[in-house]
Each structure stands twice: as C-alpha cells, then as structure tokens.
C-alpha cells in the first residue's frame, strides 16, 4: 500500500511536471507576425462567432492550439481568441517567411523519437519512485533505460535497468505495451531494523502496461512489472510492482 508520504511526493512531482509541461508548451507556441493590414480574432472557432478584436499589421501573436480549420491565438497584450487557418497562413515567422504550423498532437505521438517520464507505485510492498527514458527505433519498438528507488520498512533500494519495449498499436489512444530487460538492484538495510548485509544483485524483468494520450506532448502510463532478483545465495526473489506515471514525448 502506498503511504501518505508517497502520495504527497507524487502530487508534488505531478505538479512540478505539469508546470514544466506548461512551460514547455508555452515555449513551443508559434510566434507569428501579422503581414496583412489586419487579422480578425473571433470569440470561438467558427465564422458564427463574433469578431471581438482586430489585430493590426506588425502585431505579434502566439498560436496556442488548433481545432479543425481554426487556431487559438494570443496577442502580445494577452487577448485570446480564434483565427481562421486562411488568415494564419498569411502571417510570417521570425525569419519573415510564411509560417509553417505543426503543433504537437495525437498523430505526432505515434511517430515520437524520445519519451521521458516519472512513475510512482508499489514494489513488493515498498514505495517505489522511478524515472525513465525511451528511444524509439520504430513506431512500435523502443529501447528504454530506467532508474528506480524503493523505500520499505526494513530496507531501501535502488536499481538501474535497460530493456526493449514493444507497442503493437501506437495508433490507439489507449495503447498496450510489453517490455523485457535487466539490470542491477542494490538493497540497503536500515541498520537499526535489519541485520542483513547490503546486497547488489542482477535482475531480469518483464512488464506490461498501457499508455494513454492526454494532450499535446503529455502521456499517462500504467505499468505492471515482474522482477526476478538473482542472488548468489541460492535464494532468488520474485517481486511484483505496479506503477503509474506521466511522461512527455519529443
């Protein structure tokens, strides 16, 4: 059972990552300069919505997101509204060239090259916190490296792993994956609670889970893992782990 401290840690990390993702998203907003005499900004994504602001030539706008043939924009003085794609196509980028718009969306998540994230959960009764990074060889196949820390009543642990992951249906918004790999896991007993010595063992693992696309570059990841800790003392240990986390793709 995940302890209250772990929930607090996860909420803090979730807030931190959410702020980071928002900052990343803000930094990725396209900046465009109006080249035509004016640009009509509507209250909503459709011609039926009222034009409530007219941006003039030379003004700079940020393009936030798209919906069909409409783009949500923000002016330099903080006014937000919607402009038609035909008007956005006439704006200029920082090089004074016609703007090329390619906002991150679900389609781009299917062809990502990198994915990084953090997860929290249960590791054989201990609290677990992990970070990982994946490099995609194809849309379906990736190499994944991860680092894990565990916090238990009698001992803490840490491990580094590398494996390969297969996602058979990247075109699904909720998409299953399977992974296999191995690494090293170090157990550090709490001296005042345990008499056993520090251990550093080889580990193999199998995993399965689900990825769910959320928005822009953000994914939700649920994972079940089975770890086999291979000891030289003929007492190999099998540990089950459940983790939930969020990640961003590039």
From TrEMBL:
Keywords, alphabetical: Signal
Name of the protein described by the UniProt record: SH3 domain-containing protein
Pfam families attached to this UniProt entry: SH3_3
Domain SH3b: 39-88
Signal peptide: 1-25
Keyword Signal: yes
Gene3D superfamilies, alphabetized: 2.40.160.20, SH3 Domains
